[in-house]
Amino acid sequence: MAQNETATNGHTDGYTVSKSENEWREELSPEQYAVLREAGTERPWTGELLDESRAGLYTCAACGAELFKSGTKFDSGCGWPSFYESVRPEAVQLIEDTSLGMVRTEVRCASCGSHLGHVFPDGFGTPTGDRYCMNSLSLNFTPES
């Protein structure tokens, strides 16, 4: 597990980007708020970034922190954008998630605590063996110029 394992009221304190839930509601679309701040999940195969194949950088849709490079994105067939590693280990926060009656590892932005998705140890054929299964709504993409 990464830093700040213990969550309180859904999010931990001490993030470099800290805003009230009202501020987040004003800045994010209702769909983004549901995913990023309430740990929701977008429907599979619906995300705008699923088929994005250009070179570039994926950042947190809430705070703009750098999260993933396009070179680590792969087609996992799961219906969500998948990456085999984050841009830096400290860019994301990994938290045990026991919701839905199973044990999973939630991935949050380490800068603002927003929910990004989950990481699974089934990224077969990737250099790390990991599959960071991310919601498109939680990411912004900037193509290389």
Automatic annotation (TrEMBL):
- The answer to keyword DNA repair applying to this record is no
Q: What is its EC number?
A: 1.8.4.12
Where do the coiled-coil regions begin and end?
none
Q: How is the cofactor bound?
A: Binds 1 zinc ion per subunit. The zinc ion is important for the structural integrity of the protein.
Region annotation (Disordered) ranges: 1-28
Q: Which InterPro entries match?
A: Met_Sox_Rdtase_MsrB (IPR028427), Met_Sox_Rdtase_MsrB_dom (IPR002579), Mss4-like_sf (IPR011057)
Query: What keywords were assigned to this record?
Result: Metal-binding, Oxidoreductase, Zinc
Which superkingdom is the protein from?
Bacteria
Q: Which residues form the active site?
A: C133 (nucleophile)
List the catalysed reactions.
L-methionyl-[protein] + [thioredoxin]-disulfide + H2O = L-methionyl-(R)-S-oxide-[protein] + [thioredoxin]-dithiol
Q: What GO MF terms are annotated? A: peptide-methionine (R)-S-oxide reductase activity; zinc ion binding
- Pfam families on file: SelR (PF01641)
User: Could you tell me which residue ranges the MsrB domain spans?
Assistant: 21-144
Which cofactor(s) are needed, names only? Zn(2+)
Q: Enumerate composition-biased segments (Polar residues).
A: 1-19
The GO annotation for biological process reads:
protein repair; response to oxidative stress
Q: Where does Zn(2+) bind?
A: C60, C63, C109, C112
Q: Which PROSITE patterns match?
A: MSRB
**What does UniProt give as GO cellular component?**
cytoplasm
Question: Kind of enzyme, top EC level?
Answer: oxidoreductase
Q: Which family does it belong to?
A: Belongs to the MsrB Met sulfoxide reductase family.
NCBIfam families attached here? peptide-methionine (R)-S-oxide reductase MsrB (TIGR00357)
Write down what this protein is called.
Answer: Peptide methionine sulfoxide reductase MsrB
| Source organism of this protein record | Leifsonia soli
What's the gene? msrB
